[in-house]
Every structure is written in C-alpha cells, then in structure tokens.
C-alpha cells in the first residue's frame, strides 16, 4: 500500500472532495484497489486554486495536524462592490465610489496584522444550530456568526504603487480558521469602500508549497500507468517543521507497542520518531518523557 502525500495544485472550479476522489480514482486505475485511505489536509473553496495536500495511507493520520497548520494565500480584492458571498459567486449587496490609492491601502494593513477578531462569511461551512451557514444563507435566512480570534502572521500589498486602482493583490500568511474573504471585506471597509475577492490562490500549506505541487493532468497520468513515485512525497515530508528523534531497534519496538520512552535529551514539544529512515510515531515530549500521539504502521517497510 502507498503511504505519503500528493500535493495537488487544485484548479479553479474543483472542490476539495473532488480532488480526493480524483486521487482515489487514479490509485484504483493504477491497480492499488479500493482499500487505500485518502484524505485532504484542509478544504479549499472551488473558486480558489493552489495547494491542496492530499494524504495517502498512513499519512492520513496527519491530516488533523495539517488542518491546524498556517497557510499562505495570494488574493485580489476588487474595490467598489461587495457580494453576499464576498467573492464572484454571489450577488452584489453594496456598492461604493471610493477607490483607495496604494498608499491608503498600505496604511491600513498594520491594523490587520497580528492577533485580530474577524466575523466569518455567512457563506461558510460553519454550523449554526446544527445547520451549515451557507445552507441557511442560500435559503434566504439571516446568518449571524460570532467573531473569532485568528492571527495574521504577515500581510503585504503585492503592488505598492501610488495610483488608485480598482483592484489590489495581497499576500497573507495566516493561522488556521482565518477567512480570506472576511479579511478582504474588512480591509475594504476600513478604507471606507467595499470589496470582493476576485482571485484566491493558496501558495503554501504547512510545509508544502507550489514547488511540490502537481497539476490535475499530472495526477491523471498515474491512472494511465505512470509511476506513482513521480508524484508521491514521503510521509515524513509532512513533518518537516518539527524535530526528529532517532530510535534504536529496542526503542522503536517500545514505541510501536505504545510504551513511554524516558530519559530523552530533547526539548519539550511535538517530535516525530524514526528508526533509520522509517517514521515510527508522532510523539509529545515533556520532561524527558515521550508519549505516542499517533503511531505509523510502517514496520513492513523497515523489514
């Protein structure tokens, strides 16, 4: 069974679940059967493009961690109109004649950098009394979502020229739970205008960037006989942002049995343990003791 990551450069119009289905279909056509586990590491709207990490096999145990990872987006805001969905899919609900200059846009960005509060879009997958917010909004009901705390690690204007322009493109490195459409709305309103996202592209998710992404066409070559190794990244690539612990055979055996390791000279925090080149487990260290968070069933690879 294959284990690892396929980083899809998701095209415009394709849903995240459709991306997972495309991976499943190609693996099945390549002869891997229907039992391979596949999941994505963070939903990306159909109208957005870019990084969609898709986990295969034992890597699916890391999708939750990928959901918690920070993301980086490029996005374009068109000033003068705001839609109910805050993107081009919706109906215009407000208009403004104010078109800010680049200097004015740059001047408000510090207000949206660091820890901020934002109200998610009414057209979102958040639940209200057990119902998806977007289902309620599409049914014509008023959706009132509570503000939430998020962190904008970095926010910059990609074209900081001086002239006023109807559109501006930004680059934002954000924490989990951040809605770029809400960020765009709030930036436009801070400029006494209104705005709608016309382009949204995820350029990084956790440790994955566009340099490791493949097109849908490249993915479809796997179902036609191309080697899976051409596109499948190792499971441990998804752990590049945390330190590794090297285990001896006895330690690896203990970890696979779920036992606690003691006396480790490593800093507290999340680590991944390996025996040679084989990932063994995701582990939490505290006071020299390491406990298994998630174990990887890759012992056959080691043998």
Please identify the structural class as seen in this structure.
alpha+beta
Mean pLDDT: 92
Strands, count: 17
Count of runs of 4 or more consecutive helical residues: 8
Secondary-structure element order, as H and E?
EHEEHEEEHEEEHEEHEEHEHEEEH
Strand content: 25-35%
Computed Rg: 22 Å
How many strands, which pairing sense, and closed or not: the largest β-sheet?
A: 9 strands, mixed
Helix fraction by DSSP (H/I, runs of at least 4): 10-25%
Cα(first) to Cα(last) distance is 15 Å
Shape: globular
> Poorly predicted ranges (pLDDT <50, ≥5 residues)?
none
Can you characterise this structure?
By secondary structure, this protein is α+β, with helices and mostly antiparallel strands. The protein has eight helices and 17 strands. The strands form four sheets. Strands 1, 2, 3, 4, 7, 10, 11, 12 and 13 form a nine-stranded mixed β-sheet that branches. It has a four-stranded mixed β-sheet with strand order 14-15-16-17. A two-stranded antiparallel ribbon has the order 5-6. A hairpin with a 2-residue loop joins β8 and β9 (131-132). The radius of gyration is 22 Å and the shape is globular. The mean pLDDT is 92.
């Amino acid at each position: 069974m294959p284990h690892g990551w396929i980083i899809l450069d998701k095209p415009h119009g394709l849903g995240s679940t459709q991306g997972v289905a495309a991976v499943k279909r190609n693996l099945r056509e390549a002869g891997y059967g229907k039992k391979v586990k596949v999941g994505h590491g963070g939903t990306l709207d159909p109208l957005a493009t870019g990084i969609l990490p898709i986990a295969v096999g034992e890597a699916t145990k890391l999708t939750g961690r990928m959901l918690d990872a920070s993301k980086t987006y490029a996005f374009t805001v068109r000033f003068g109109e705001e839609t109910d969905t805050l993107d081009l899919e919706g109906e215009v609900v407000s208009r403004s004649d104010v078109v800010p200059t680049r200097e004015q846009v740059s001047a408000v960005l510090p207000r949206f950098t660091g820890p901020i509060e934002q109200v998610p879009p009414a057209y979102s997958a958040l639940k209200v009394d057990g119902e998806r917010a977007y289902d309620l909004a599409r049914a014509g009901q008023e959706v009132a979502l509570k503000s939430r705390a998020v962190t904008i690690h970095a926010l910059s204007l990609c074209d900081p020229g001086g002239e006023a322009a109807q559109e501006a493109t930004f680059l934002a490195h954000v924490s989990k739970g951040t809605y770029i459409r809400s960020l765009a709305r709030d930036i436009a309103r801070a400029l006494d205008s209104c705005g709608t996202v016309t382009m949204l592209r995820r350029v990084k998710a956790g440790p994955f960037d566009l340099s490791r992404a493949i097109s849908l066409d490249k993915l479809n070559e796997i179902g036609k006989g191309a080697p899976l190794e051409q596109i499948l990244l190792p499971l441990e690539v998804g752990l590049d942002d945390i330190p590794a612990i090297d285990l001896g055979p006895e330690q690896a055996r203990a970890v696979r049995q779920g036992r606690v390791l003691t006396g480790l000279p490593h800093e507290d925090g999340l680590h991944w343990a390996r025996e040679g080149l084989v990932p063994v487990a995701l582990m939490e260290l505290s006071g020299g003791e390491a406990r298994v968070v998630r174990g990887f069933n890759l012992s056959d690879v080691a043998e």
